[in-house]
Amino acid sequence: MKNCPLCSAAGGVLVAQTSHYRLIRADDASHPIFYRLIWQSHVAEFSDLSVPERLLCMEAVATVEQVLRQQLPPDLRPTKINLASLGNVVPHLHWHIIARYDWDNHYPDPVWATARRAPDAQQLQALQAQLPALDAALQAALAALAA
Amino acid sequence: MKNCPLCSAAGGVLVAQTSHYRLIRADDASHPIFYRLIWQSHVAEFSDLSVPERLLCMEAVATVEQVLRQQLPPDLRPTKINLASLGNVVPHLHWHIIARYDWDNHYPDPVWATARRAPDAQQLQALQAQLPALDAALQAALAALAA
C-alpha cells in the first residue's frame, strides 16, 4: 500500500516474523517493553481478517504477552499487560503489547494519557538491560508457535 | 472476587451475555458507541484464558466490531474501530470496543489522551439516536455467534 509506513518499513526493531505477521520492538523511552505485532498484509481492522487469521494473530499476541509475564526477573515482572489495536494514525492492523509497571510515568492511566509523574531512570535502565534476553525469548516463543 | 467492580456489577448497560462473557455499553458522553466485552470469570490477563476461550472471546470482539462497522447508516460509519484490553485500574479482563470518528474530540489520538477539540453536539446526538438499534443488532449478532 502506497504511503503506508507499515507497508514500506518494519516500523521498529524487527524481532521475529512469519509470512502473516511480524513482531517489532517500539522505541518508547518511558515504556521500554513495548512491542507491536504487525499484520503483514495491509488491512485496517481486526475483523478484516478471516477467523483462522484472527486466531493466528491473537495466539501470537498471547504468546508475546506470556513471554513478557514469564521471562523477566521477579523484581521486574510487569504489573499489567496492555493490549490495543487502534490504528487511527496508521490504519494498518497492528497490536500494541505493552508491559506496564506501577511506577511507570503514566500508571494506572493508558500510555497515551498525560504522564502523572517523572520517569524513573533507574528502573527504566533495569528494563533496558533485559531487552536483548527478552527479544531472544520472544523470537524463540514465536518460532515455536509457528512450527 | 471481592472488591472487583466487574465481579459485583454489570459495569454498564447490559446488552447481551453468555456464560463466558457479557457485552455492556459504557456511558461515555464524548464517545457514545463505546462497548465493553467483559469476561465473566475474574482473570486479569488475556493469556490467562485457554486457547479455546481466547478464540471465543476474540470472535465475540470481532462480531461486535463487525456490527459497529456495518449497522450504522452510511453518514455515521465509524472512521476506525479501536480495541483495547488494558485493565490497569480494574484488572478483570475486559475489551474496550470503540467506534471512532474523524470529528470526535480526541481523534486521531486514543480516547484516553487529552481532547483536541470540543465535542460536536449535533453529531453526538445523531449517534445517540442510533443506540437502541445498535444494541439490538449487537444482541442478535452475539446470539447468532453463541448458537
What's the average pLDDT of chain A? 97
Number of helices of chain A: 3
Cα shape of chain A? globular
**Proportion of residues in extended strands of chain A:** 15-25%
Low-confidence stretches of chain A: none
- Helix/strand-derived category of chain A reads alpha+beta
Major β-sheet of chain A, in short? 5 strands, antiparallel
Q: How do the strands line up in the largest sheet of chain A?
A: 1-2-3-5-4
Secondary-structure blueprint:
2 copies of one chain form a homodimer.
Chain A: H1 5-8, E1 13-17, E2 21-25, E3 34-39, H2 51-70, E4 80-85, E5 94-100, H3 121-146
Antiparallel strand pairs in A: 1-2, 2-3, 3-5, 4-5
Helix pairs in contact in A: 2-3
3D architecture notes:
The structure is a homodimer of 147-residue chains. Chain A has 147 residues and is an alpha+beta fold. Chain A has helices spanning 5-8, 51-70, 121-146; strands at residues 13-17, 21-25, 34-39, 80-85, 94-100. Chain A has a 5-stranded antiparallel β-sheet, covered by helices on one side. In chain A, helix 2 (51-70) packs across helix 3 (121-146). The longest helix of chain A is centred in the C-terminal third of the chain and has 26 residues, at 121-146. The model of chain A has no long low-confidence stretch (mean pLDDT 97). The A-B interface holds A 44-47, 51, 54-55, 58-59, 61-62, 65-66, 69, 79-89, 91, 100, 107-110, 112-114 and B 44-47, 51, 54-55, 58-59, 61-62, 65-66, 69, 79-89, 91, 100, 107-110, 112-114. Strand 4 (80-85) of chain A pairs antiparallel with strand 4 of chain B.
